[in-house]
Sequence to fold (94 residues):
Amino acid sequence: MSQPFSPTPRQLDVLRFVRGYQLATGGVTPTYREIAHSLRLFSKSNAHRLICGLEERGWLRRLPGRDRAIEILVPVTVPRAPDGAPLYFVPIDG
Fold:
């Protein structure tokens, strides 16, 4: 599927964080609070807004009626530790 819009840098941070978290926890998706805290957002509503934007653009899908249920629909590169473990988040800019 071709994506007409590129994610913003902040949206890309969210995609990488969610995918890395899922890989590290056997498929469990982080909560909005965990996303906000890890990415230093002011509130979980900011995390929700970023997730909604990604969903509107077709980059991910929230599964209705299920907590912590986000399916990422595009390939996302996730940084890895030297031992191969997925890293939850690596800031791109200092």
